[in-house]
């Protein structure tokens, strides 16, 4: 899975976003055996040079659309609980389980399926996954009962993680090496767009015209992405030989620091953000104003994603230090202020801006830290991200219940400060000052280019 943040539902663990946070409870199980599980490294080769100009933009737009589609597909049922419940004769909690089951299957099958498909040409794999999403959404749109709906969801869940394990590195193949970080940012922008636009829009359509229309529309989008991918994406081959395990990637210098930073910052953010609504109420924000604050949070996040894309290739360390530093400062400020609603809103906007930049910066760092094992490194990043989300929500819930809402930003500030310390200490391997492997187009391509030049 990918990073999640949305305007809706962080108020309590019973909301639809609260259910979504529970999606990652299997991360601990996965982490216990991942060190022995072997994932083939995507030591890809490209038939032609990276596309340029309009061709590169078209390819990135295709990947953006895929990111938008998959995240919207995953989370949309939570915006349509009553309608889907009435439509297929299942209780709302059972409809909510369609998201939980989706997450469970994604976490359990991503690593083995990624290994099994690692030798597939990237474009072929991408097209197959998009076909599965088209079938899933169209089948869900006509599902007569809960069993059919569950099956439709699970076939998409089975390929969801495979897509996200390969999509960031695929994006880097569309651009010159010095713009690889911006390409990753473009993919994550699709994630953000899904949660700030796709789910609310899909919910509105489903409420107005019926929930089946929403999923029919998602199926049509998937078909269009299939067509676009088959014609716009370059041919990139999968691994030909060799195996690089997740455990091996974890032992790569720099990867452990990235995993630790990711876990800490996710713990910090979601220990607070999951319960931001009761916090805002405690700080004098009226109930009707919470949505406006969350909208501003999301809008600032869009700016943060743009800023990360602009800086990740030229000033990756500086951008990351600023981002984690601002998250720490915003959390500390939210812990201190009292009875200052305007200051609360300003700090919440700063938090949204800084936090949204982090997924791009951390994912890019993971790709650079293990250029010969990008899929394995990405898998570790995703696991750390989701583990932090799940544990953060649980930790925040404990503090909320036993100490009170005022403790949440304090805990978050301490965790964010710890993440900042790890970033500062990781100057050599995890978060170097300059973009390491500038001549590497990902997955060891730079080494092959040097070999050819030597001859």
UniProtKB/TrEMBL annotation:
InterPro entries, per database record: MFS, MFS_dom, MFS_Efflux_Transporters, MFS_trans_sf
Database matches in Gene3D superfamilies: MFS general substrate transporter like domains
Superkingdom field: Bacteria
Keyword Signal in record: no
Bilayer disposition of the protein: Multi-pass membrane protein
Subcellular location per the Swiss-Prot or TrEMBL entry: Cell membrane
Region (Disordered): 435-455
Protein name in the entry: MFS transporter
